[in-house]
Amino acid sequence: xxxxxxxxxxxxxxxxxxxxxxxxxxxxxxxxxxxxxxxxxxxxxxxxxxxxxxxxxxxxxxxxxxxxxxxxxxxxxxxxxxxxxxxxxxxxxxxxxxxxxxxxxxxxxxxxxxxxxxxxxxxxxxxxxxxxxxxxxxxxxxxxxxxxxxxxxxxxxxxxxxxxxxxxxxxxxxxxxxxxxxxxxxxxxxxxxxxxxxxxxxxxxxxxxxxxxxxxxxxxxxxxxxxxxxxxxxxxxxxxxxxxxxxxxxxxxxxxxxxxxxxxxxxxxxxxxxxxxxxxxxxxxxxxxxxxxxxxxxxxxxxxxxxxxxxxxxxxxxxxxxxxxxxxxxxxxxxxxxxxxxxxxxxxxxxxxxxxxxxxxxxxxxxxxxxxxxxxxxxxxxxxxxxxxxxxxxxxxxxxxxxxxxxxxxxxxxxxxxxxxxxxxxxxxxxxxxxxxxxxxxxxxxxxxxxxxxxxxxxxxxxxxxxxxxxxxxxxxxxxxxxxxxxxxxxxxxxxxxxxxxxxxxxxxxxxxxxxxxxxxxxxxxxxxxxxxxxxxxxxxxxxxxxxxxxxxxxxxxxxxxxxxxxxxxxxxxxxxxxxxxxxxxxxxxxxxxxxxxxxxxxxxxxxxxxxxxxxxxxxxxxxxxxxxxxxxxxxxxxxxxxxxxxxxxxxxxxxxxxxxxxxxxxxxxxxxxxxxxxxxxxxxxxxxxxxxxxxxxxxxxxxxxxxxxxxxxxxxxxxxxxxxxxxxxxxxxxxxxxxxxxxxxxxxxxxxxxxxxxxxxxxxxxx
Length: 768
Description:
The protein has 22 helices and 27 strands. α9 crosses α11 (249-264), α18 (597-616) packs antiparallel against α19 and α21 (722-732) packs antiparallel against α22. The strands form 8 sheets. The protein has a 6-stranded antiparallel β-barrel with strand order 7-10-13-12-11-15. Strands 23-24-25-27-26 form a 5-stranded mixed sheet. Strands 16-17-22-21 form a 4-stranded antiparallel sheet. By secondary structure, it is an alpha+beta fold. The protein folds into 6 domains: 2-53, no CATH class; 58-210, no CATH class; 211-257, no CATH class; 280-403, Elongation Factor Tu (Ef-tu), domain 3, CATH 2.40.30.130; 569-644, no CATH class; 662-766, Diaminopimelate Epimerase, Chain A, domain 1. Helix content is 43%, strand content 21%. Keywords: Aminoacyl-tRNA synthetase, ATP-binding, Coiled coil, Ligase, Mitochondrion, Nucleotide-binding, Protein biosynthesis, RNA-binding, tRNA-binding. GO terms for molecular function: alanine-tRNA ligase activity; aminoacyl-tRNA deacylase activity; ATP binding; tRNA binding. It is found in: Mitochondrion. It comes from Centropus bengalensis.
């Protein structure tokens, strides 16, 4: 702790007592125990001191300031806030002295904009769960203080980004690189929040108007505003307080508790993979017994056979230890699930974004008893195989391992395709395109990357073409282990921003690793070169084909693609071609100018069904986007054609009715109409042609239903209400109706139609 008063006084009594003069600047945590699930403390195998010093507080002392906000880490940002709003300069006031919380707002905005800048540039964007949700709330809190307290115009937060970059950019060079993207994300989220606030205010106003006097504001509405629009609960309280209305807090608390219980969900008795993740004590026991880490180099032991098939080398191993119920065991009985630790393995453990191998092991000399391997995990250098023992399994048993070769080969294919995709995206979208994450399974590959704008149809096609070209060339895939310092010097090396082991495995497509490592070599700029621990094909030709079947934005500036390879890619293209032919067929039929409403409605339904299929089926994404554009235009054309035909039909029926009821103040009749929409148009047309008339029409349907539509002349408002008229008539037919004082519609049963016509006339006469 540091005493700002100084002078050699004994300030020990003021430590951790909330005194602004005695401030903690450095904290030590002694890592000595592990608190177990049951609550008891177990000594950790290794003891450490975790040390952390607050940069801002240290700078405050060095610059002789009482507050972090008076240091040059914050003053440029506070000055920039003042320039962008219409309140007095920051004065460092707190508590009651800070009238209107203006100085607090300065501090909140300055602190939060720094957080936003660093998080966004690190790849955490405002979202709906975990860290993303926290950042979303931070951004919205900053927006509220900015707009409500500082009275700043929209855009203030984003305008502060260059100042934050100026202050922190030297320490965090990524800020300088990503400044434009940070500003775009902040602006987009601020606009969305301000729009939500406006919608929320309207909903609150409408709800208050509909409330009975002396009642509390419904908790369901408040919770919906909070959950669906992100409308802060404290702001709802504040707005209601201004109107002299209280919120039903007890009911709201119940909703909050219910939501918390729902999110917690049922607690599983044993977490998934509990027997494949070594606890800290078990790991220490293995190391204490000098159990050697698993040699997993055999996972890379495979070659291409003379017929181009992959041959995986056999692997025998010894069971070193078994792991079950969070403890190491020498023996596991039949039927029990456990983790098997071997001295060596050819199974690939899940890491580097690639799913683990599956397969089985057999005890040597016991060929007919298979121990299935469900998943494989790496923990502290030990490879743990998740196995359900079909017979008793013991430490010391000798086993032979059999990897599911089809699944492994599919993972290898998709992992090599992921490297191809990474290279192609950079070629098409530019060198600033960087990987944000990936996941490879035997079924598909997923790849996340940063991008400035939406990926176009043309760009998706170009990316696929670049990949196809490398596949057709059947380039050799070169792999080698090299020192990390040597790898870091490779120009154009594609890496994810994370820690790598030393030595590291490098994967180069088409160019030998020796050429990539040569002094001043630019070979890595022309092909895919990545640090990667995954398993890969030995030649790119075996990928056969890559089809991107999905592309969407995860957040502003980050896109995710999902792709399939080989036979699945071919199938996706074939299905895409079939759907394109179906869309062409509908398009041709639409151009034949059908004059029948039912025919056009059938075409409209067909377009709707095709749209659903196109949206949900695995086809190339560029083709999906093209077909979606065509189908959207076809749906608009169909809707326009139906409306046009309905109007034409309504005009004919209206002309006939006008001739029958020329200029009558009330027109009540039956008329054939295929839908309520057409019937309503006939009513509208009649009222347009005979402005003083009030019209109610019934239309019996083949199903036994009777449709009802009416419109009241404005001359007879408010005594005569269309809604009341329709309700009276449809009630007579055991049906329902609703609408406004001017227009209304409903339906009922044909049995009561004659009585309904009489009711319609009597009701109208009583109001005129």
